[in-house]
Amino acid sequence: MNKQRKTYILLAAVIIIWSFVGFQFLGYLESDDEVLSEVAYTKFVPKKAKDKELYKVETHDRDPFLDKYNKPKKKIKYTPKKKKDPVIFPQIRYKGSINNNGKLLFIITINGAQKIVKLNQVVSDVEVVSGDNKEIKVKYKGEVKIFKK
Q1: Which end of the chain is more exposed for a tag (fewer CB within 10 A), N or C?
Q2: What kind of fold does domain 92-148 have according to CATH?
């Protein structure tokens, strides 16, 4: 084959390829809008999941570095402590004290009612544990609180 013949064959191939590309391009430009048909949708039903296999990691009692057997540690169970409800004291005010023949009496106001109380005397669930001229210790439902004058 001579050189001129090869050139004509290659020129024909290039013209055929470019014409094919041109027709494709013009076909896209002149195409009408396609009417999309409605697609029938089906209800999605998920597949049932398979049960997973549970694996348990077993511990070995032998220490590979020391070549000794370890004793299994005891598990400590944590039990949370129950919180007690806070005791709400009645409205108590310490007014003062009276010394009556060596006995100390205390004047206190409990919920607006004024009382004269001796040591260890219980008045409406309030017990005076100890006291002096400046302050008293009062016990109410197991809780102790200090009231000052």
Answers
A1: N
A2: SH3 type barrels. (2.30.30)
